[in-house]
Every structure is written in C-alpha cells, then in structure tokens.
Automatic annotation (TrEMBL):
Keyword Transcription (UniProt): yes
SUPFAM superfamilies: Homeodomain-like
Organism: Massilia psychrophila
Annotated TM spans: none
Every HTH araC/xylS-type domain range: 211-308
Domain of life: Bacteria
Protein name per Swiss-Prot or TrEMBL: AraC family transcriptional regulator
An annotated Gene Ontology molecular function: DNA-binding transcription factor activity
Amino acid sequence: MVSPLVDCVCASPMLPVCTVDLSPIVHNSCLYVSGKSMDMFSGLSSSFAINAQVFHTGELCGVADFSDDHGVGHLHIVRHGRATVFYPDRAAIEIETPSVLFYPRALNHRLVVPDASAADVLCATISFAGGAQNPLAGSLPDSLLVPLDSVATLAATLDVLYQEAGADAYGRQVILDRLCEVLIVQLLRYAVSSELIEHGALAGASNIFLARALSAIHARPGQAWSIASLADEAGMSRSAFSRLFHDVVGVTPAAYLADCRIAAAQRLLDEDRPVGTVALEVGYGSQPAFTKAFTRRVGMSPREWRKRSGSG
C-alpha cells in the first residue's frame, strides 16, 4: 500500500488493502459506435486488470503529498469542500465543486485544503497490470478532472460508495475497492463519448474498423499477426489500415502488438508460469528472443519481474 504524507487528517484511519479483479464488470461495459454495440473493454480486459486500493475516506485538512516514486496512479473523489492541486511542473488546478480527479499513471502532485476548512475526500491508489506496457493505461491522459454532476451515470455508484464508506461492516474494504474500479470504467466511458481521448487503445476501440483488429490482437496476442492479416480483420486495405491505425492509436500495429504481448506475458508470469511456456504462448519462437524483448521493454528480465511481483 502507498500512503501519502498527510500533515493533517481530520477523520477516518487508513484502511487495509484488498485487491479485486475487475474482469467480470469490465466485460459488461459497452460503447455504441455507428449504431452498433461495441464492447470496447472485453478484449482489453484479457490483457489488463484495474486494481484500486482505497486508503482514506472522510475529512481531509492541510496538505497531502502524492509522490510518483511508487509507480501508481491515484483517484481522488472530493465530495464536499474546496481543494487546490499543485504540481512541480505545471499550473495548479482549483477544485471548487464535487469532482473526481483521476491519475491513471504516477504523477507527483499535492492536494491542499484551505486553512481553517476541511474537505470530504476519498483517496485510492490505482494500478494497471503491465504498467507502462498496458495498452489501456498508455491511451489515457495524465489526469482527468470531472465534476460529479456532469456524468449522470456516476450517481448510483457514488451513492453506494458513500454509504459503504460510512459503514463499519464486514467486506467494507472489498466493496470500496471494487466500486472505485467500477467508477473508473464509467469515467472511461465518459472520456471516450466526450472525445477527451484522441489517441491510443480506447480511441481505436471506438473506431468500428480498428476495433475489429484490436479485438483480434487482444484475444490472440500470440498469433503470428501480419499487417495483411490485421487489415483483413478490419476489412481494409493494408496501406489504409496502417495509416489509420497509426493516426488513431498513435503507434504502428507492430509496436502495439509487441506491447500487448508483453502485457500478456506479465500476467502469465504473475501466475507463476514457466518462462519458456510464456514465451511460446505470447508469440515468441524462443525463450532467448522473448527474454531480450521483455528486458528491452520492461527494463528487467522475465525472472526478475516475477520475483519483484512476488510470484517467483
């Protein structure tokens, strides 16, 4: 668990950590594209898992620092009160109405509540399986600030979240974590439908042609995909597919496939699968080739990754 350095917390002790897999919920999140229902998360959920860990609920006063040293993102839900968010290298932002502030990746920031006042805040750490190689995490902006009343679908989730935060019952932590994960999926829906996300996996998933190719990659990352076979999935010519993929997703199909393979490999390694078996399952012809590619992208060998994640 990563805890901020809080100068003054007026209420609520820090909570124990509990990890929840969001896959069953993510599979039910749909986006309508060109009149057709497109489940944009179903393929992605096989390559990633969202993990929310709530560590503070209740009143917050003074200053809370959130370092980027630990490699996790954050979710802050400001229910009541005012706060200012300061950054070391960008302009500060003022939160004057109930809002949710989402950092999908680690970002150094400071949450400051005005003197002689307090804000009702829920804070959670957020991580994505695969880290920087995760195709979903990489498609999101550094931060997303959304007034709570601008997304009607958040109301029901927030009602249950607030009720559970004020309860003292068995399973409270599990429910809080899972509800935060649901809230993130709802935020992603809003971001895509509001065109706040212009590039990356989510933007590609909202394109009726690219979604077919992306879905195929996510479902079968170990397959020997070529530009021609992916273009066939999309129903496009190879040249048109390559241009559209790069323009929308922001990388070449080959680079995106490589990231998906590494993310899938990390998940399998976390399940304590043998390195050689993982190499074959994610599409590498040999263990040395897989180890070289994994090390180049992650910065450590597959065995080192497994030891660091606690599964080896």
